[in-house]
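Before the break, one more example. Copy the sequence into your notebook; we will annotate it together after we see the structure.
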Amino acid sequence: MRRLFDSHCHIIDHRFPIVANNGFSPANFPLEAYLTETRPLGVVAGAVVSGSFQANDQTWLMDALPKLGAGWAGVTQIPNDCPDAEIARLDALGVRAVRFNLFRGRLDSVDDIAAMARRVHAIAGWHAEIYADAAALGPHVDRLSKLPQLSIDHLGMTEAGVPVLLDLVASGCKVKATGFGRVKLDVPATLEAIAAKSPDALVFGTDIPSTRAARPFQPSDIDLVEKVLGAALAQKAFWDNPVALYRAKVSAAAG
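Here is what the structure looks like once it is written out:
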């Protein structure tokens, strides 16, 4: 069986605050449901990601990360005025990145994103993740390229964003090979182009439970990555690259 680090998944536990976004409130999808769906796929580690519907709430992460244990990381959303001490506390919990949801949710200026990205990296070594149509990031490539570490969600979403994405990859940006059922681009061609630019860039994730995606994740998405990239590059996307990005403490059994 393949060994997978799921670099992008969501836990939606209605015991914790859920904020409707654009009138949408997601169905309950607790940790147990996620593990039941992904363990048969070979997922043994990963990163659980705050969605727009979780806003700046941290209680769900405080519940999920200790249960998941070693090898798992959190990606959170925090306000610009989040105290340094809170960032350090979340880091101790296992959070490893801050997310900026520009596709739906907060509308930060690039100045705000850059300032926050630099601050969380200085305090806790976190990287920044951006969910956006990469085409909209075109005017800001130079500034974003200078951040300590950046990751772009869901292959940058659109065909128009691919050239921007490749410019960012050239500067060390990581790209989540996720959400194949929500993007508007040629997935195989985009995977090939990113891997050709940098074999260290792609990090695979399921995007489960695929809220609001036109087509939810399918196990065949894993097969597609391996078919397009070949065994060696797929191994990097499935495991080596995301383990390094999230500084995951994987066990010998998992690794």
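The domain at 4-245 is CATH 3.20.20.140 (TIM Barrel). Residues 11 and 34 are 7 Å apart (CA to CA). Try to locate both features in your own notes.
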